[in-house]
Amino acid sequence: EAKRQRDGEAQFFQQAQEDELEDRLTLERELKHAIDHDELCLHLQPQVDAHRQVIGAEALVRWQHPERGMISPGRFIPIAEETGLILPLGHWVLKEGCRLLGEWRHQPACCHLKLSLNVSVRQFQQPDFADQVLAVIQQYDAPPERLTLELTESLLLSDPDGTICKMQQLQQRGVSFALDDFGTGYSSLAYLKLLPLDTLKIDITFVRDLTLDMQATPIAATIVALAESLGLGVIAEGVETEDQRLVLANLGCRIYQGFLFGRPVQPESFSKAIQCHQDK
Ligand code: C2E
Ligand code: MG
Ligand code: MG
Ligand code: MG
Fold first, then answer.
1. I need a surface site. Which of 29, 48, 201, 254 has the fewest CB within 10 A?
2. Which atom of ligand 1 is nearest the CA belonging to 77?
3. Looking at the predicted complex, does its ipTM rise above 0.90?
4. What is the pLDDT of residues 221-274, one digit of tens each?
5. Which ligand sits closest to the CA of 47?
């Protein structure tokens, strides 16, 4: 009896594993199709300063699946990274982001805004990554000084020299860099100093716990102090409440991103909101 039950369980788990694998294979095939057939889009989330003025936006990729509806990047970016599809996907994001920046040049309400794009490690590690970025900037006549690339700490684990070299090449042309999800990875502080970075982004996990009646988590405080001592800007991610904003402001953080100020929306809605706000 016990053996039969064990066999049954084993079968159940094997079936579940097979289903999961099949799901992923289907998603992989469909994602490939999506990249080539314009099923991806960028949504924009505002980044605001201490006066709640929008100073820029982060572009977040979305997959508008014809049957399954909107799929979030948390579901398909990991698959894209495992399968290598992150390269064409990342290039699509780069093109679409630079196309938007090129359009904004001609929109008085948006021409001063910066746009941040997320770049995967694997995408950045392509030997010709910097050349790709410069070519796309040129193709869409995007102002490089309005473009920020968000990198993650894991880049530093493998090839710090190559990373610094590519970053410098792009920085010389005006592109800025932010370190995303800061505090969740393994940054060596020694490397942090060597990187031509502009901004540290405090990860949402350190913002979530901030409340007025509690001491600010030492981590958020430490990141702000670290950024200051390295001469870097700092952006807090995932700010949802006025209390969180206040605590961050008291720590010396001046730029915020989160649902308190706006959710990611389609680029047309984003531009319209900026325009309306300025007309007021
Ligand atoms: P991320 O770059 O750290 O982006 C911030 C995530 O936090 C976004 O999730 C955003 O919608 C969410 N967020 C913003 N404000 C709030 C808030 O106040 N509360 C909460 N709970 N969440 C907030 P999203 O769009 O689902 O993206 C998840 C991750 O997927 C991104 O994290 C990024 O790592 C990756 N990703 C998104 N777009 C791209 C892309 O174009 N390329 C690459 N390589 N990765 C991307
Ligand atoms: Mg990001
Ligand atoms: Mg982040
Ligand atoms: Mg994140």
1. 29
2. 45
3. yes
4. 999 999 999 999 999 999 999 999 999 999 999 999 999 999 999 999 999 999
5. 1
How many CA atoms lie within 13 Å of 58's alpha carbon, on the beta-carbon side? 28
Please identify, by atom number, the ligand 1 atom nearest to the C-alpha of residue 43.
25
Q: What is the pLDDT of residues 176-216, one digit of tens each?
A: 999 999 988 877 788 888 899 999 999 999 999 887 767 66
Contact residues of ligand 1, CB 6 A cut-off: 45, 60-61, 72-74, 77, 90, 93, 118, 120, 150, 180-181, 204, 237-240, 257-259, 264
Tokens 């007021």 belong to 280
Strands 199-202 and 69-71: unpaired
Q: State CA 264 to chain mean position distance.
A: 12
CA–centroid distance, residue 280 to ligand 3 (Å): 31
